[in-house]
Amino acid sequence: MIGQTQYFRDTWAEIDLDALYQNVKTIRDGLPQETNLFAAVKANAYGHGDFQIAKEALKAGAHGLVVALLDEALALRQKGIKAPILVLGLIRPTDAVIAARHHISVPVFQVQWLKEASQAMEGGEPPLKIHVKCDTGMGRIGLKHEEELKEIEQFIQNTAGFEFEGIFTHFSTADQASEEYYQKQLAVFKKFVSVLETVPKYVHAANSAGALCHDDSLFNAVRVGIALYGLCTSQERPTFNKGKQIFSLHTRIVHVKKIQPGECIGYGAAYQAEKEEWIATIPVGYADGWLRKLEGQSVIADGQRADIVGRICMDQTMVRLPHFIPIGTKVTLIGGQETGDFITVEEIAEKLETINYEVTCTINFRVPRIYKRGGQQVEVENKLFLGL
Length: 388
Ligand SMILES: Cc1ncc(COP(=O)(O)O)c(C=O)c1O
Hints:
The protein has helices at residues 17-30, 42-46, 50-59, 70-78, 96-101, 111-120, 146-158, 180-194, 208-213, 345-351, 356-362, and strands at 11-16, 36-40, 64-67, 85-87, 104-108, 128-133, 162-168, 202-206, 221-224, 247-252, 255-259, 264-265, 271-272, 277-282, 298-301, 304-309, 317-321, 330-336, 342-343, 369-373, 376-381. The radius of gyration is 24 Å and the shape is elongated. By secondary structure, it is of the alpha/beta class. It has eleven helices and 21 strands. It folds into two domains: 17-229, Alpha-Beta Barrel (TIM Barrel), CATH 3.20.20; 247-343, Lyase, Ornithine Decarboxylase, Chain A, domain 1. The chain binds pyridoxal-5'-phosphate. Pyridoxal-5'-phosphate (PLP) is lined by residues 40, 88, 170, 207-209, 223-227, 233.
């Protein structure tokens, strides 16, 4: 439910819509006029909330959206998004009719798929918009030979019900310092495009790293995800200009106690105090995506760093405070407080030995999302319940 304003737990994620707008605008302004910006809002906009992010990104200059699943595209249509939407993952040919009916573009790389989709079409729906996917080296989905591309082009030309709207590929090393593999993929893709009788409306290859680091990858559209969210797409490429992180995660202390030397905390009694200590409990745990591996990570409580001690529980976590801090005090797990200290998504990713993408995607929708503009709350999404 959109516009949901109620939630009853003291753990929430904040999304800074002003920063998102600025990030999108900066990326848009950095692209040539003719390059269409598609905002990647799959996986609930990398955990930020697809509908709110889609609306803001489109307002800030994105031309369209990309998602991974037909269900994600349909959910956005259902909420009133009218902009072009491309599904990146393969859909069932029997579902082609649903995609066509809702003006959702889909990837294709096999004539067999088109034949099955053609049989499943009912006849009265608008043409299904096809983006032909080329596998130039990612090894995931896509055609690999020019003959397959020509066959698909001809099939679409000769068969009612389809529109050849785009051709695309995906780079696997655009974020790396070495150019070699990237250049190979680019050359293969250019060759694919060159054998087409008619070049379709959209030709696209670049993700964030491509769009920000490789001018030769832009064609006339780019699919940008991670950079919208102000997260670093590439540690290796010095040309990359990071935006502002729009995601933060907060909670409040629900219990504080002083423990004595020798007293233990949490499952397995894995933490034992060496001296008298103040321990706070915060209502967030691995069931929210605040994973057990974050034991030992610091949080910001009352402007100061404090370490997580003991094993992280399913719904609660314990923190060793520098001194007594009262119940109700805001604790920041990702992002900053007024004092200036800041926990980046990358800091959490490093602790988790993973990439920043996985961090925001992992904070699940048991945690309400609060959308802010000018520092003020403008929307709340709480997927747990539909209100009283
Ligand atoms: C095919 C495709 N295009 C674009 C993107 C967006 O990538 P990024 O978030 O690195 O910009 C992804 C993300 O995984 C993708 O799979």
